[in-house]
Specification:
single chain, Aminopeptidase, four-stranded antiparallel β-sheet, globular, alpha+beta
């Protein structure tokens, strides 16, 4: 696996299904239509972290107006865990942080 930095960008609607697959594989219970509903509410709230083009981490931090939000689909692909990638998508999704100093 690469040690290249992770890039984080907004997911496409189809990529949100990848996050649903990952969490279902972990035994979580995502709703069948959750990705479509949440993505429609806030398409900018779905983030995908990738290394050398390979998806490694996801988070959804969906806003409902100015007063409500929901965080979910926070997961790192098993082979990429323990390297700080989860923290990077968390910081971006929850706090909007765009630079990271992990160490």
């Amino acid at each position: 696996m690469s040690s290249a930095p992770m890039t984080i960008r907004t997911m496409t609607r189809n990529e949100a299904d990848l996050a649903i697959e990952w969490v279902a594989a972990e035994g979580w219970n995502p709703g069948v239509n959750d990705a479509a509903c949440f993505h429609a509410a806030d398409p900018e709230g779905f983030l995908l972290g990738s290394v050398d083009g390979e998806p490694v981490a996801t988070i959804s931090a969906v806003r409902y107006g100015t007063a409500f939000g929901f965080v979910g689909l926070y997961i790192v692909s098993p082979g990429w865990r323990g390297r700080g990638y989860g923290m990077q998508v968390w910081l971006r999704g929850v706090f909007g942080v765009t630079t990271f100093e992990l160490g």
